[in-house]
Design a protein that fits this description.
The structure is a single chain. The chain is of the alpha+beta class. It folds into two domains: about 1-160, no CATH class; about 160-290, no CATH class. About 45% of the residues lie in helices and about 20% in strands. It is built from ten helices and eight strands. The strands form two sheets. It has a six-stranded antiparallel sheet with strand order 1-2-3-6-7-8, with helices on one face. A two-stranded antiparallel ribbon has the order 4-5. A hairpin with a 2-residue loop joins strand 4 and strand 5 (about 235-240). Mean pLDDT is about 90; it is low at about 20-25.
């Protein structure tokens, strides 16, 4: 689901985001642009929720609305996915509404409201599903992702710390393909052992002058050996966390003339590029020559 949301935010409305930040700030409010953006976002949101309800929730047993505590499942990797999704969804929608001529403040809060409303609607659908339920921890990480974007926009007026994502296939999907995926695409969405969530930043943004503005430091979190959401040990395999340190490239700092290429680089900038990495897990420090 998070990849669907990011696709909506960064690609469906890509043409609207082709304006420069300066153009967005200085533009006069356009009711036509506002109507176009709001209608497109509304139809896409409602349509995706309706489709999700028909294709997914209609096949599940329904019950009365209830809560579900899954805060310890998958060592919070799914929660990081929530924060990552809401951050980038808010970012994309904010740029869309800046394009309409809304003030930066109104664009920011409109985007945040839509993002949280959309994810809350999905969470409410979970609340009526017998197999799941409304997750307060999901909502907390939704708020964390939105808060990270809001805080930086309001206090720094730019995004210094950028959440990113990377993935590599693991052998654990073979052990439980019905849960972790039967192929690459399914594993990309389901196998948390192969997913890594990063927070990348450039020291230049923090006042370090002798540093390339496109080169970033990146801290990541992943897990290994988790075969069942709430089980530390399953089928003889014990799971553990992995903390990572690496380098990254800020693709938004690459100067290009093509608006299409600029939009592509902005979308690609949600991904952490492969680099040598240092890993800390099970009390040991190791290095990887190239980590995806």
């Amino acid at each position: 689901m998070r990849f669907i949301l990011i696709f909506i935010a960064l690609n469906v409305f890509g043409p609207l985001r082709s304006q420069t930040a300066k153009d967005s700030i200085e533009s006069v409010f356009s009711s036509q642009r506002f109507t176009l953006a709001t209608t497109g976002i509304g139809l896409t949101s409602i349509g995706s929720i309706y489709g999700l309800n028909k294709l997914w929730y209609s096949n599940e047993n329904q019950s009365s609305f209830h809560l579900f505590n899954d805060s310890k499942n998958w060592m919070q990797m799914d929660k990081m996915g929530h924060a990552f999704t809401v951050y980038h969804l808010t970012r994309g929608l904010k740029e869309v509404y800046a394009w309409t001529g809304l003030s930066q403040k109104k664009s920011l809060w409109t985007a945040a409201g839509i993002s949280m409303g959309y994810l809350s609607a999905i969470e409410i659908l979970d609340g009526f599903s017998e197999s799941w339920g409304f997750s307060l921890s999901d909502m907390a990480f939704n708020s964390l992702g939105m808060g990270l974007y809001l805080f930086q926009e309001q206090h720094f007026h730019r995004q210094i710390f950028k959440p990113k994502f990377s993935f590599h296939q693991t052998r654990f999907a073979i052990q439980r393909p019905e849960v972790l995926g039967n192929n690459f695409l399914e594993s990309l969405l389901k196998d948390y052992n192969g997913q890594t969530y990063w927070l990348s930043f450039s020291p230049v943004q923090l006042g370090v002058k002798q540093w390339p503005n496109w080169l970033m430091l990146s801290f990541g979190h992943s897990i290994r050996g988790r075969l069942k959401g709430d089980a530390l040990i399953y089928d003889g395999t014990k799971s553990h966390r992995e903390l990572l340190f690496s380098l990254d490239i800020d693709l938004s700092q690459i100067s290009v003339k093509s608006k299409l290429l600029k939009n592509f680089l902005e979308a690609l900038n949600t991904l952490k590029l492969p680099f040598p990495s240092i890993l800390f897990s099970n009390g040991k420090l190791t290095a990887r020559p190239l980590y995806f």
